[in-house]
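#random but structural
TW: two for the price of one
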Amino acid sequence: MTAFTCPPGREDTERAEQFAASGADFQSFGELCLVKVADRGKTEFVLAGRGSGDVLTCLRLAALQISGLIRFQKDRFDRENFIKRVVLGHLLPVDVDDQAKRFRLDGRVSRTVFLIETREDGGDSDVILQILRPLYGETAGGFLFKTAHRKYVYVRTMREGESTEGLEEIGRNIVDVINTEGMQDACLSFGTPTKKLSGLSESYREACLAMRIGRIFSRESHVVAYDRLGMGRLIYSLPMPLCRKFLDEVFACAGPDELDEEALMTIRQFFDDSLNIAETARHLYIHRNTLVYRLGQAAETAGTEYQKF
């Protein structure tokens, strides 16, 4: 590609093409000055200008600046792609260490992986990256990329003394930015910090697990930390046959699938309110006696008693 600082003639264009194929870095044809913009030995552009005096010097300085910008952009995308492959587990640990040296990535700092999911299709999926990259991208010390439809990963370089509470606050800020600027509902999870780059894949798996468990046990929460899953992690890890056996023992007469939506909503709210009859009735906007009747009907269907929950 040739960039002219003045409207080129046919002869100028032909000379620029011949110059691009030559081994020279810069050349003058009378008042026509040509300078190559190269990156790692490959010619990317040819700058051309007309004039005398310092024109050639100015073009050479411009070529150096443009070469630096090209190298920066390529390195940024190469580094980002490298981190993405590490997170997704596409590289062996020994390869991770070797390539980290090439990209001059500090292996002594802690990093953690955030998984971001938008809950609806917002049209242009790149909008989320455009919004978050200036705040959380490489210029801000992190890496941000897309992994699948409506799924994004943010690798954060942690500051000294940064705690789980601090990461949760960062997560809430990210969700708020997506809500306000991207006009999309989002949820976020994150794994435990790691000081090894090869450990980012494990942190990512933890974030994915936290997202799945959060959907089940923390549906109202938009930010879920892997190390704060509590009882949900224990229940999720139980084998399915064991869970089915427990349900068969508790629901002796009928399974929970036979309860209608109203009964399930009532029971869910009852548990959310710590088995408090008055609070549950208030949240459901029904009379206390109506709630007791509903719970009694559900208990009869399920073959258990709500007083023994």
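TW: number two ↓
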Amino acid sequence: MLGSSLILALAVAVGAASVPRNSPVVELKNGSYYGTHNSVYNQDLFLGMRYAQAPLNDLRFRHPQPLNSTWDGVRNATEYQSKCYQYGYPSGPLSGGTDDCLHLNVVRPSAAVKDKLPVLVWIHGGGLVGGYSGDPSSNLSYIIDESVKLGSPIIGISINYRLGAWGFLWSSAVKAAGVGNNGFRDQRLALQWVQENIAAFGASQLTAFGGRDDGLFRAAILESGTGFPTAFGEVEDKDAPTFEKGYKTLLRRTNCDSAKDSLQCLRKVPSLELAQIVGNVSFPVWLDIIDGDFIRDSRSELIRHSKFVPVPIIHGVASDDGDFFAQRGINTTQEWEAYLRKEGASKATIEAISALYPDIPRVGLPSAFEGRPLGSLAPYGSQ
């Protein structure tokens, strides 16, 4: 008995010693984490914390499952974890990531940890096929530093969620199993984790970039994209024949086309092998779909009938957000009008668009440019 007690005491001592001195520590519902302190911005960062069970093996292509275990000691939360599998937009080969990616990050001002601060959750963009919470171009330190300077400090959170087929696989088999739109369900489970744990970081209310009403957030900020269907978005009904075609292609390439349970067969394909196969199925783009559950109707119909969460909203755009889709090399008004005609625009529509968006030479293309540079610096042309 004495020996057991001594071993336990040593284990506790070793666990305590493994936490770097002066590291911020937070005790959450399932266990404790230690983070890192950023002395430049005077912020505490808790990075790469798991908010769901790893969606591996039998949990692949299923709704995310909440954490169901606790741990002793203090876990390391000082580094961003792996991004979810990434693909080109609107479709393209695998460009990195992993399927064990359901992590989030919390950044707070160090000087205000005793105050109950509002919370801002950043849900990254990327067309549901790319993007990740640790992207250096959208880290949370800047916006939190600005909030402190303004005298209204906030806590920032960023999350990963499954992308492409991993988060938005669809077919009659997926529909029958009721496991569609898993990437969006990841986002919601992350918000639930936040509600359960954020008070430990010194927070009060939550503002999110997205949602459906279970009291998970009190306001939202919408940037990039619209609430209406696009050429790549929700354009098909619940049966989604185009997605069915893509699903059957996926089954053939994984030798799951003769399996009695095709989804279960896909769950057994080695992760990286499946990720590469998914990236080589060029059509369709695996995106959100009307599944009759999470998304019950088209966005336009939901908006028309006021079936949305009535919370305060800020709605804006991201600078040059459409550059990726823009036609390049347009140098004259005639070329501009020809491009619109090719896309199916009528004469009246072309005239209306041209009136709303006249050619103003002093405005850069994209807007980050000043004026109209020449050659390789002007990929979109001079108009």
